[in-house]
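WP5 quarterly update. Target: L,D-transpeptidase. Source organism: Methylocystis echinoides. Length: 203 aa.
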Amino acid sequence: MRLGKLIPISVATLALAGCYGAGARLPDPKMSARDAEFLALAPQAQVSAEFDRYLVDYKTSEPVGTIVVDSRAHLLYYVMAGGKAVRYGVATGQDAMGWTGRAYVGGMQEWPRWIPPKDMLERWPHLQPTADAGGLPGGPDNPLGSRALYLYQDGKDTLYRIHGTNEPEKIGQGVSSGCIRMRDIDAIDLYNRVKVGTKVVVI
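Structure tokens (predicted):
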């Protein structure tokens, strides 16, 4: 997957990324019956406490409602009022596939269908039948997991997403093809907080 033209990140944003206190563990979000059914069937894994979901102190020049992803630390922040943020552990792109830049949420889907992108098909031809069939329906085994936020720049889909995962054991690692993966329960929590147009900054 490729991201289009990137806009440089300001020095101020870089300097302020990732300042937080110990924080308070947040409860799980409210879920639909479908969510509960699929999550019960989805792969499970214990994650390190540092990658759990917390309300933390967070200093940034970005406005309230912004998503900030610290790729190196494998953490995603949803900026709240009063110098706070909700912090989530994530899996990010491998060194050769990671990206940084500014984008916005151009689309949102619950339990989205997954269609292997072209560059993935080139690396893993065995996925071609999945693409030919129109993709994999949403569900507990789908690589996009419970939710997907589709990242856009200048009205165009970057082909990058913030999404759930069927490999929760990899949270906290650099393993993806550039997308930002979250635990399914965390993807639901973030999805409930954002809207189309939400600003996304990846550093």
